[in-house]
């Protein structure tokens, strides 16, 4: 029927179709992976191939919200831009009023609140954006938050949004995330997860690493190439071993 | 009652402010830092009603940080001066900020520059400036001793003479002054 006309209307079986369609829009965005380590948080984004005439440097999927908070998003770039600007204003306003940095929970809640308010008003549509926010709690522990077009937000140990196959990457993370990952391991896990859906090569992904009290570090292309090459070598060796093992098993069975 | 002054030298600017926070006959503290770092290469100091000065400076600092986050680049000194003046002007016919300002900044395009603003939203680019009662004494010292292209030592010597003049001739005792320098490397505190 036409329960997807105005977003302020529920369908008979309790769906808000516009919100669900917004989540579909997120799935069509390029992939973002977030991994929380023992003392670091890594955000990795897929960098889709740019048109020949386009200047790749002006396309940014990882943005700074505040001195200690970084955000990456999947979905409509334009919607994300608006959301990020609202969040930045809120962060500065908080700093002006409270003379203190806003906590990551506060910022995630604010962004989620904004996204929710656009699902309960006439004449507007939801933001077609899911975001991942990385930062640290007051006790220096790393934190990763996720928001979605419905306005839900929660903290995660690791997650993936957008990309060719969101589910596959999420399953990969579930299988491979362990507690107390060192920074290098968190980076490797993020790259491996991205490689599930992204073509290999440092020009196809961008990684941002956050540590407590330090400005966020975007990995240089050379650094990323080394890590990707290392991971691929590991995969090759694992394949050879598996092939060798099955060959050995084959010969023994003949006997 | 604030004494606030600044000068431009060769590739740097010195901003000086007294460090007393007082009301009527009572001095609260002698280590009040009135010179705000707006960002890595700008200093803003206000003289006037303490609440307005502090609040306005913080407001400007937050807005310049927002600009930097949104645009990935710092606003130039010239741009900031005009932005600040605009805020003063808008507030003037509503609820004026009773704050007289000096803005010193470094940017790659214009080098070091100093801007003088008053609470009625006037704006001028200057080589040296002063606000408060102290201006009556300090401007005379600057008129006589300021020269174009002074190095940091010479600039600090002029500042030392200004402070000496205040201590000799100004009625109000201001034992402590805070001095900050802005140049290509950023902002830092200096001592005489």
Q: Give start-end ranges of low-pLDDT stretches of chain A.
A: none
Order of helices and strands of chain A: HEEEEHHEEEEHHEEH
User: Number of folding domains of chain B?
Assistant: 1
Low-confidence stretches of chain B: none
Report the average pLDDT across residues of chain A.
Answer: 90
Q: What's the total count of β strands of chain A?
A: 10
Number of strands of chain B: 12
Q: How many distinct folded domains of chain A?
A: 1
CATH C-level class of chain B: Alpha Beta
Per CATH, what is the topology of chain A? Glutamine Phosphoribosylpyrophosphate, subunit 1, domain 1
Superfamily (CATH H level) name of chain B: Aminohydrolase, N-terminal nucleophile (Ntn) domain
Strand order of the largest sheet of chain A: 8-1-2-9-10
What does this structure look like?
The complex is a heterodimer of chains A (255) and B (192). With 255 residues, chain A is an alpha+beta fold. Chain A has one domain (17-250): Glutamine Phosphoribosylpyrophosphate, subunit 1, domain 1. In chain A, 41% of the residues lie in helices and 21% in strands. Chain A has 6 helices and 10 strands. Chain A has helices at 17-27, 77-98, 104-117, 166-176, 183-195, 221-254; strands spanning 32-36, 40-46, 62-66, 69-75, 129-136, 142-147, 153-155, 158-161, 205-211, 217-218. In chain A, the strands form 2 sheets. A 5-stranded antiparallel beta sheet of chain A has the order 8-1-2-9-10. Chain A has a 5-stranded antiparallel beta sheet with strand order 3-4-5-6-7. In chain A, helix 2 packs across helix 3 (104-117). The termini of chain A are far apart. In chain A, 40% of the residues are buried. The mean pLDDT of chain A is 90. By secondary structure, chain B is of the alpha+beta class. Chain B has a single domain (4-190), classed as Glutamine Phosphoribosylpyrophosphate, subunit 1, domain 1 (4-Layer Sandwich), CATH 3.60.20. In chain B, the strands form 3 sheets. Chain B has a 5-stranded antiparallel beta sheet, covered by helices on one side. A 5-stranded antiparallel beta sheet of chain B has the order 5-6-7-8-9, with helices on one face. In chain B, strand 8 and strand 9 form a beta hairpin. At the A-B interface, strand 3 and helix 2 of A face helix 1 of B.
């Amino acid at each position: 029927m036409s329960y997807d006309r105005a977003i302020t209307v529920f369908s008979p079986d309790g769906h808000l179709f516009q919100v669900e369609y917004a989540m579909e829009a997120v799935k069509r965005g390029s992939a973002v992976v977030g991994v929380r380590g023992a003392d670091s948080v890594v955000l990795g984004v897929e960098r889709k191939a740019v048109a020949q005439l386009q200047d790749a440097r002006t396309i940014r999927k990882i943005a700074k919200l505040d001195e200690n908070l970084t955000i990456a998003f999947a979905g409509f770039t334009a919607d994300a831009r608006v959301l990020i600007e609202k969040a930045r204003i809120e962060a500065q306003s908080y700093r002006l009023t409270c003379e203190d940095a806003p906590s990551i929970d506060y910022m995630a809640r604010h962004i989620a609140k904004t996204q929710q308010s656009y699902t309960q008003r006439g004449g507007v549509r939801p933001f077609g954006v899911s975001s991942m926010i990385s930062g640290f709690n007051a006790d220096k522990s790393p934190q990763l938050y996720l928001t979605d077009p419905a306005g839900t937000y929660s903290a995660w140990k690791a997650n993936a949004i957008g990309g060719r196959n969101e589910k596959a990457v999420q399953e990969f993370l579930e299988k491979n995330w362990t507690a107390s990952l060192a920074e290098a391991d968190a980076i490797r896990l993020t790259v491996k997860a991205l490689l599930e859906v992204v073509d290999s090569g440092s020009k196809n992904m961008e990684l941002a690493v956050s540590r407590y009290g330090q400005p966020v570090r975007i990995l240089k292309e050379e650094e990323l190439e080394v890590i990707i090459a290392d991971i691929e070598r590991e995969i090759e060796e694992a394949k050879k071993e598996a092939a060798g093992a099955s060959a050995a098993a084959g010969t023994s069975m003949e006997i | 009652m604030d004494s606030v002054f600044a000068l431009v030298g060769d590739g740097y600017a010195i901003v000086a402010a007294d460090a007393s926070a007082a009301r009527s006959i009572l001095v609260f503290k002698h280590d009040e830092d009135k010179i705000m770092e707006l960002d890595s290469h700008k200093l803003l100091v206000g003289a006037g009603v303490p609440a307005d000065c502090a609040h306005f400076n913080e407001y400007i600092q937050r807005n310049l940080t927002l600009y930097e986050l949104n645009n990935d680049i710092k606003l130039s000194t010239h741009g900031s001066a005009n932005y600040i003046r605009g805020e003063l002007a808008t507030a003037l016919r509503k609820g004026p900020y009773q704050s007289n300002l000096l803005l010193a900044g470094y940017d790659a395009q214009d080098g070091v520059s100093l801007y003088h603003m008053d609470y009625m939203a006037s704006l001028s680019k200057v080589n040296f400036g002063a606000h408060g009662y102290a201006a009556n004494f300090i401007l005379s010292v600057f008129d006589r001793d300021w020269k174009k292209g002074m190095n940091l030592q010479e600039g600090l010597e002029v500042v030392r003479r200004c402070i000496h003049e205040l201590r000799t001739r100004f009625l109000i005792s201001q034992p402590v002054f805070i001095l900050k320098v802005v140049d290509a490397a950023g902002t830092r505190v200096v001592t005489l």
